[in-house]
Amino acid sequence: LALALAAAPGSGFGAQRVHDLALRASALLSDHHMFADAARCLLEHTDATEDAVALLVRGALWAEAVRCSFQRGRADLVETTVLPGIDAAGAATGEDIAEIRAAFAAKVQRLREVRATPLALMAELQPVRDDSVDVMSDTASMASQFSTFTATVTDASRVTGSTARRISKTKRKAERRRLRGKKGSVFEESHLVDSLAKLVDRVRVLQPAVRELNLALIQFARAHVARRLQRAFAELVAAVLADGDWVFDQQRILVGEGGQLDLVGEVNADGMSALPRLPKPAFPSADSWMISALI
After folding, report:
1. How far, in Å, are 28, 192, 244 from residue 134 at the CA level?
2. Mean pLDDT on 161-179
3. 30-54 burial by CB neighbour count: b if 16+ within 10 A, else e?
4. Burial level of 22, CB count in 10 A (0-12/13-18/19+)?
5. Are 251 and 277 in contact (CB under 8 A)?
């Protein structure tokens, strides 16, 4: 808005000041990954067409990058900037798909192993620390430290209960963070489910990007690459949909604020519960993203 006002007739801003302001605005927007807006600043207020097309490529805005190149009489940018960007994105996306699929399979496999162990047995083997021990040790420690600086403070009773509880709560949180994800810990299941939810979100966000990239690949005679990407991504989506309900609908553990372990709902004969602790993420679409010409 500020740039539009500066460029308006009668604003008092000269052409050079508007040009410089557009460059600064574009840089700021690109730093925040707002590549379409960053490119628009350059296209509307400067002659930096090459930089604008490069920004559109960074934002994976393939169709707009091609349109802009031809509209500005810079068809050469399609060969020098757009196509290399499409090829690089194809390679990077293939690597991302393989990485996500390997991580998803490994975490699901580990989750199966964790859920094969009865929850009660896990809690027995690795009980949560007794809060009363923390409070006593923290109180004694604080009293000792106070006595070093204040001669009148020589007794642990001078340390308030609220202070001791606050320190104990902080230490419990730090301990839970340390145990969270530790193999064999009672916290491991919730850590795995949380990690899998993040992977599912990555797949869902990647879905429209894969389609747009494949359309660009087809446009420039790279259908073989697009077909390979679509097949690999379809297999990843199928894996997510096959295991997703089991991952998120069969959570067993609820970790309370005090560190206590509670079962979520009624536990069935297999030690599973039907009530999830972590919310189920939105799943990717099975096939609406696919390009029929590549099937």
Report:
1. 48, 28, 39
2. 58
3. beeebbeebbbbbbebbebbbbbbb
4. buried
5. yes
Question: 261 - beta bridge partners?
Answer: 255
The alpha carbons of the chain give a radius of gyration, in whole angstroms, of 28
- Which pLDDT band holds residue 190 (cuts at 50, 70, 90)? confident
- Asked if 201 and 284 count as a contact pair (C-beta separation under 8 A), the reply is no
Q: Pull the structure tokens for residue 24.
A: 């600064």
Alpha-carbon span 135 to 122, nearest angstrom:
25
Rounded to the nearest 5°, which phi and psi values hold at 288?
A: -65, -20
Q: Provide CB contacts within 8 A for 35, sequence distance 6+.
A: 29, 55, 56, 58, 59, 61
What backbone phi and psi angles, to 5 degrees, belong to 282? -70, 130
The answer on pLDDT for 10 being more than 80 is no
| Runs of H (alpha helix) within 180-249 | 188-219, 223-249
| Helix, strand, coil percentages in the chain from 3-state DSSP, rounded to 5 | 70, 5, 30
- Top mean-pLDDT range of 8-12, 126-130, 155-159, 215-219: 215-219
Please give the residue that has the higher pLDDT: either 225 or 121.
Answer: 225
pLDDT recorded at residue 18: 84
What's the DSSP call for residue 286? S
Choose the most confident range, by mean pLDDT, from 16-25, 174-183, 260-269, 275-284. Answer: 16-25
